[in-house]
Specification:
Length: about 575
Amino acid sequence: MNFKLYERYRWVNFKLLNMIKIQNCKQMKKRLFYVVVLFLIFPFNGISQESGKGKNVTVVKEYTPTISDAFKVNINPSVVDTVSVKPEDFRYYFVNKPIFVPFQVQPIHAAKMLGEPLALLHKNYLKVGFASNIMPLFEYYYNSLRSKEFQYGVYAKHLSFNNKIKLENGKKVPAGFSDNEIKFYGKRMLRYKVVGGGLNFTRNGFHYYGINPALDTIPDKDTIFQRFLKFNMNSYIKSTYMDKNHINYFTKLNYGFFQEKFGSYENQLTLDGKLSGIFDDETVGVDFTGAYINQNTTSDTSNEVLVKLMPYVSKIEKVWRIQAGLKVAADEQGDSLLWHFYPMVNMQYNIIENIMIPYIGFDGNLNANHFSTIHEENQFVKPDLLVKNENNKMTLFSGIKGSFTKTMFYDFGVAFKLVDDMHFFVNDTNELLMNHFDVVYDDVQLFSLHGEITWKKTQKWNLLLRADYNKYTMDKEEYPWQKPELIVAASSKYNLRDKILLNIDLFYLDKVYAKTFDATGAVTPLLITPTYDINLGLEYRYSKFLSGFITAKNILGKYDMWNYYPTMGFHVMLGVTYAF
């Protein structure tokens, strides 16, 4: 075989193979066809042109075959996009032009809680009645309407009785009375305080009809007639701050005048004040009372200066509260000056929220007995009677209060007191009629029990039950004269559709003793018959302006409210009310 042909053949094949690798499938098939044709033609042509026989070959060196390096075609496929887009240069322009909208937005008001509609108020209220035993009644109220700036009003009343009362011995004694009162009051509400005041004038006329039943003669009604005149004038100012950063205060100045028919009179000037503030969640305050009392009777004159001061600190937490302080009282009468000190502590703990709240405390006080206050307690006392002040040296109390249900509440307590110079009313035996009361004094240890239950079933029906038991341990006297040992009371009100209003009151008093004397002058305690009675009241509202009422009192009959002083007995009153 011709080596040159062979080398050429190999080179052609090598080149063709390289070309085959880099072409696509279609070109590969075409080139492969050409290679096959060449492969079939070239061998036969070489052999036919030169024959190996008789040919001389000169070999210079040994044949060393070589293979040339292969060269790869490094071409990556790529997509040539023949379409080109030239970006345009756009410019934007904004034209400001106002657009007027005819719609107007309505403001939204703050939400408010809807409450009950305010009740219609009337400036005037008139009540007129007449009882079966010649007892006329007249009451009139005038009040300003609802206002955030000021309030004022007038009140007037007349109630009288013009008849006689039968005594124990069967004698009828004039027992008429007349109660007249007129009052003016008002107040001005400022931003953080209230300023107010009032005037009050009262005239009370009555008879000392409690004549000794052992007498057969009845005195003339003018000789047993008494009349009280009272005049009070006051002014006050108090703060209304609701935050902790301010100190609240209250001060009141009052002048009072009292006079009775036989010439005794009293002048009293009183200044009351309260000051309190909150510091570190503790309330610190002080209460102040200063009084000057001038008392003049037909037989004596008394001037008294009484000053009371009570600083205190109180702390209120979620389940407990405590208040502690010291009461200081300085009492000057004539040339004598007495100081009294009373520690004060009051604690309570809420074991079960508003269901069970036990409490305990310690207290004391000096109770001033003025000429006017004694006549209010018992109007049948001697006209010129002066009474000592009562020194309540110690009061220790404890109890428990709370609620049985959402509509039933209770309060049960016990107390122990040490009282010096407690006064008791006794008939004045220095007078033949014995229709005046004098007083005796004694030092007393008083043990008290108190119970109270309130049932408020609905807004239209409520019931109150109350009982008080007092056990007196006397130092000198045998009994606590004219003071009941047991008091029981019940009161109920019922409102039927705001048309019919019914109320009923029941009370019971027991173990009341009066100090009497026998023929030898020895003390003979008299047990007064237990007192119990029922009072009824019924009102029918014809409209919101006009109504009629009927009241029945002392339904169970007569009883003695004081020794020798029976009540007027059963009586009925009819009347009307009108608001305008």
